[in-house]
Design a protein that fits this description.
mainly beta; 0% helix
Length: 121
């Protein structure tokens, strides 16, 4: 067993797409998806960009405002997740700061209450 301290992962700042206060620490990859820890500083922005694959953002600490292709802004907090579809333009902003995990790629994400892996009983 290994314990990963996500804040201690080597992070690199990202400024693409007009992003600011945004850093990424990669810690997992497969042939079909990658897994990263992200930090948004207070007032930080992940600028509008298309999802390369289905993208899942899981808020671990803090809160953010997110928008997808339709432009509707929604607030998400720790314990909530957002799913964007492949190619969907999306943006994330935070007033107070946020730490999250992103999984992006060939993902099968179930609806609430839907069991994705029938082997999990």
């Amino acid at each position: 067993m290994r314990i990963l301290d996500l804040p201690d992962l080597p992070h690199r700042p990202i400024e693409a797409h007009g992003s600011r206060g945004f850093s990424v620490g990669a810690f997992g990859i497969s042939a079909d998806a990658h897994l990263v820890a992200v930090t948004l500083a207070p007032g930080g922005v992940i600028g509008p960009h298309p999802a390369l694959g289905r993208q899942l953002l899981v808020v671990l600490v803090g809160e953010a405002e997110v928008a997808g292709a339709e432009g509707t802004v929604r607030r998400v907090t720790a314990g909530q997740a957002v799913v964007w579809e492949p190619g969907e333009s999306h943006e994330t902003r935070t007033a107070g700061g946020m730490s999250a995990m992103i999984v992006e790629g060939d993902l099968d994400i179930g609806a609430p209450g839907e069991q994705v892996d029938p082997g999990d009983v």
